[in-house]
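Thread: quick sanity check before group meeting

JM: Hey all, I'm pulling together slides for Thursday and realized we never actually wrote out the predicted structure for the chain we discussed last week. Dropping the sequence here so it's in one place. If anyone has concerns about the input, flag it before I start.
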Amino acid sequence: MDRHTMYSESLAGRILGGAGALTLAPYRVDPSAIVPVVAHLTDAHGRLLVLCPADEAEYIGATEARVDGTKKAPELSIDITVASLHALGRVEWLDVTDPAFAHFPLADTGAFAVGVVTMEKVLLHGPCGVIKLDPHALPAVPAHHPLIADEFEARDVVGMLSPGQLRALLSDALVDFIPGFRCSEFEAMESAADGAAACAHAGSNMWVADVDPAGLTLASLYGSRVTSVFVDFAEPVSTISDLVRAVDALAARTSARHASPRI
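JM (edit): ok, ran it. Output follows.
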């Protein structure tokens, strides 16, 4: 399997595991309806569980639905949509006595319903383009994974890298000095380019688009050209402590690579 597909599978797994936002579109019942998903996660059995308003669940019933997901970059200075996920499947609503409700302890069982979504087709429009994915091959990422539950803490850890170090990592990965790969490169639409340029004038044209267990996705803007690159960690991370060590290793690597020669 190529690296683009591997990363896309990981990103899709995290979106379904609780990162980002989901909605359901019951296209057979009401093509114009959009059912908000208040919370969602992937359980230990690999099932996608969705928490929705009970009146909406009662209205659409058990039916075929389109799942739409959006994942934003963990940046506060700019609004970057890293990926959108679209899947066709079917939602079945569980009885209020089902143990699955325990996954959503703050939910009022009278006001909300829990559904199980079985997916048949998944498309991810992400940093590596549009990729068709097998829903049965996606990793079941638990909601308590730190890159879902503590995403902004993870971004703070990555913030130990200066903008200069991030730029060095991106350029080194582009020319194969360090492990990684180019995700995409394209001309930004005028409105998006203007917004990003405003952020660049404020002090940065380099952003952390995504933090994955296997590495970082970095995005840069030069003129109206957007480049995104995936930079590998030495080892996959599963805790914040792992991430701290991985970021320290990247900092040491780029510092050694770009150190001034001694005379």
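AS: nice. Confidence is low (pLDDT under 50) at residues 198-203. The radius of gyration is 20 Å.
JM: adding both to the slides.
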